[in-house]
Amino acid sequence: MNMSAYEDFKNRFKLLAGKNQHLVVNTLSNIFTMRLIGNKTHGDLAEIGIAEFINQFMYDFKSIHVGKDRFRAKEHEEDIVIINEITNTEFPVSLKAYGDGPLQLSTDSDQKMFPFLEKQGKNIIDKDKIREIFSSKEFSEFNAINVMPLIYDEKKQRCNIMIFDHVKVIRNTDRIVYVGKSQRFDSEKRRVVSGKGRSHPIFIFIDKDGKYICEVRYGGASANALQRGLWTHTKNAVSYFDSLTNGWVDYSHNHTLVKLFSLALNSSEQGHAMANEILQKDIDRLKTL
Predict the structure, then answer these.
(1) Segments making up each domain of the chain, as ranges
(2) Total-model pTM
(3) Contact partners, residue 93, CB within 8 Å, separation at least 6
(4) Which of 109, 154, 172 minimizes the C-alpha distance to 252?
């Protein structure tokens, strides 16, 4: 995977968001308006919404929505593929719309990461060993999955496109600790203590200041998607994220869009074609603002 291509894309997106924030706010408002239709709807529509945002507003880039029909055949966890039309490089991106809290970075579908860590010990502090873990084949996808999370705070109606900084994580991880069932890691005491509510064990990655970075969840045969893979927490690990929107941006619900969907589902393809022409003219207008 061409990591420099993804870095270039992120820098260009951040620059666009800084100079033309109204474009980002408009698209995010429309995406999160979909939560008025259904709690899960916004996640799927974010994929086609961001893909079209790239096509409309990010010159030199185009994006293709992978689509659900190809889901089972995908080699990676991508939702869209982005192509740099100058260099002809392409890379997959996984889009996620999550609330401000736990965030899954990888499902670890082959269940490799947790069993591998179990073999390394329960309190890994040797720096060479930590480097070996990150460079191991079991962790080969750690920095190979491009996750673009749309983090939202529904109560405050704000959103932040936050990218997990894998390079910084590898550089700053000082300790990897096993936390068993009914246990938790006390960051002040910097040790594992008794806790409540955990039904499966995890490995927590911690920096030199004792602060939480991320975790690898239980990967046994009985684990479901929420109980395995690589996770982090957007509130607890905020210093390990880079914001493409340059921080939180406010969004608002577009009730007219909900009405548009209602009409579109009851109108013909001929009507949709006419509407598309009108919508494209409005997008072209937004580009000039």
Answers:
(1) 3-253
(2) 0.85
(3) 6, 78, 79, 80, 81, 82, 146, 147, 148
(4) 154
